[in-house]
Input
Amino acid sequence: MAKTLTTRQQVGAVLGVARLTFQTAPGAVLFKLFGSILDALLPIATTFFAARTTTELAAAYSGLPGARHQVLLYVVLTAALGLVMTIWSSIDRYIQTKMRYVVETRVSNRMFEHFLSLDFWRYDDKHTADLYDRAQKFSQFFAWVFDRIASIISQFIAVVSAIIALGYVSWGLAAAILLAVIPGLFVQFRLSRRQIKHWNQNIEVRRTLGMIEWHMLQPRLISELRLYGMVRYLLQLRARLRDKDEKKRIEIEQQTVPLVVLSDTLEAIAQVGALVWIALAIIARKQPLGQFLYVQQLVSRAMGSVSGLVSTISSIDEDVANLFDYEQFMQLPVRPKTGVALTAAPQVITFDDVSFHYPGEQSPDVLRHISLTIRQGERVAIVGENGAGKSTLIKLLTGLYEPTAGQVLLDGVLLSGIDTDSWHKQLGVLQQDFIAYDFATVRDNVRFGDVDAPVSSARLERALQDAEALEFVRKLPQGLNAYVNNWMEDADGNKGTGLSGGQWQRLALARDFYRAAPVIILDEPTSAIDALAEARIFKRLFAEGDRTVITISHRLSTIKKADVIYMLKDGELVETGTHDELIARRGAFYHMFESQIEG
Output
């Protein structure tokens, strides 16, 4: 939960935003600060000359000598200030737009790079997810935060200068106006604090709401939602969650309405009182005629600036509080890139008495005392019931997680001591939840398997053929250049084509073939592909003798071709051997696949 900040912490956070913004675009920041001062002082100067114009007009009307020339001088000065304000406004808009782009680009880039470099376990950690949500919210509006800081500076200068300018007429009047706006400041700050507290307490509600809305807007999910009668249920659940968040926020604001009305009334009384006072002073000839316009404009500007100041501070209060979450998130340690760089695939992969449990969990280990060896060029199958620990074993093998006990070794070197990027370059991994790049064409979906190398048409076609995908790709209207989502459209107006689950799986498998990595890991790679096509795919895959192939599958026809099969049960390695050896043993492997064996 984002912390409630003291005034000192708020000031420090504001300075932190200003510092980072200045480091990003120093010229634009200085220009913005200079503009804030101009925005505050130019209207007061314009009001001063407009008031003097009114006074000299009355004098000229009365026939006083020289008044006519003074009127013309003040009119020209007022017009010149108006022109300066207009020109400045146009320049300021451009500078703001440019600065916002530069700052947003830098901050969002830092946020993305840092997020994608964290230790893998953090993506399963709720505390990290909550911290990321708040940090992301801040990063998205970082440039606007500085805009509001500049606005606060401008409004503060406007309030102070307006009070000082009123003191030029009467210091008693200036003090009365200052006292009248203090209650409004108090009420708005109180409301802001309550709203921040509500926001932080309802992060989970908004996350759930966002997930529900995302599911309801996915065309591929609509059929199940309708068939199971989930549409109305989710709409009602969405309404309840929205009420819990947004309706409660409105209720919080409603509770402060009496205080807001009271403070507004005090300000209105002060404003009317100031105008009555200056009107009586003019009638008594104690003040010149132009002072009425002067006082009226300054009182209005002082109160308007105070109202804007309170509103801006209220809006920035939550963002400033979230700056601490942003900084805390950016300080999370990233995965180190140091270590021995692999230049070739390892000859031997070893699990030495490996145990593992997910961070923060008090439950028993997901894997317990796993010891196995995988040699280069070997065809390995890892089998077991759901929840046996197969996918977790792969996460340890790929270096996404580190064992809580034991060691994973590549040619005798600890995997944790090897440069992760160099190890990943040796791997081709196709998981059950592979990425379907909906925004890309067939060509891109395949070549994304090796983006560091120049695109090769021959490699693309070979990969598609090996994955049994070439036939359906050739039937697409635009072939390799076809988008694989019916919501996409190319520059010539050709709409994309949606793919079936099996077609997507073949396309993802083609991406793996295109990568041509020396170590291939396949986690249920052909669950949506028919048995005959699967047999041809694995025949090609196993024919390449220099590759190490590690596959997880529940299909006996796939795993029976493996050189060695490792059978996991409840996180433990219970059997090892070839297909024929394990069948003859009549143990855990046999009982798991008994129905397929008999078939």
User: Anything to note?
Assistant: The mean pLDDT is 81. The longest strand covers residues 348-356. Strands lie at 348-356, 367-375, 379-383, 405-410, 413-414, 427-430, 519-523, 548-552, 564-569, 572-577.
